[in-house]
């Protein structure tokens, strides 16, 4: 009995460890991660300008705020195939929202909030009749159940895909590859 109890504690701890970058604040869900870096604030701004999905709207002394636009969730980075990916997270859906990057000595914190998708429209045909719907969704709809608690299925697939996408999107610590002709 003690072994079973210990196993349940370990499994539940493992499940919650996979969603550590998601923060629930009331009925709002946002993504947040702290990165350590050797880069200066100006270097991070320059790296950010090269990201097509990020648009800077406001710069302060030590923070940047902006919009996320036309972001496609990278299910491959999370280790999934198109067939194993929920339809709302495949390449047909483009996500948008807002981001904030706060910079301190040797680290920065990236946050993404109000994440929504303008999903593809889905039309089913049967017997000459077509039924269609748009697959617009939000991070809150994917992550929370009707009681405002994390869905049991969220950390298994959707949470991993969204987390991997945002980790890659906001990681400005990677070294720039040196081109062959710049050796």
Structure description:
This protein has 183 residues and is α+β, with helices and mostly antiparallel strands. The chain is 23% helix and 36% strand. It is built from four helices and nine strands, in the order H-E-E-H-E-E-E-E-E-E-E-H-H. The strands form two sheets. Strands 1, 2, 3, 4, 5, 6 and 9 form a seven-stranded antiparallel beta sheet that branches. A two-stranded antiparallel ribbon has the order 7-8. It is globular.
Itemize the secondary structure elements and their pairings.
Elements: H1 2-17, E1 22-25, E2 28-36, H2 41-49, E3 54-59, E4 63-71, E5 94-104, E6 107-118, E7 121-126, E8 129-134, E9 137-138, H3 139-143, H4 158-169
Q: What gross morphology would you assign? A: globular
SSE-based structural type: alpha+beta
Main β-sheet description = 7 strands, antiparallel
User: How large, in whole angstroms, is the Cα Rg?
Assistant: 19 Å
Beta-sheet strand percentage?
Answer: 35-45%
Mean pLDDT: 80
Strands, total number: 9
Question: Which spans of ≥5 residues are poorly predicted at pLDDT below 50?
Answer: 3-18
Please give the alpha-carbon distance between the first and last residues: 62 Å
Q: How many helices does DSSP assign? A: 4
Query: Approximately how much helix is present in the residues?
Result: 10-25%
Order of helices and strands: HEEHEEEEEEEHH
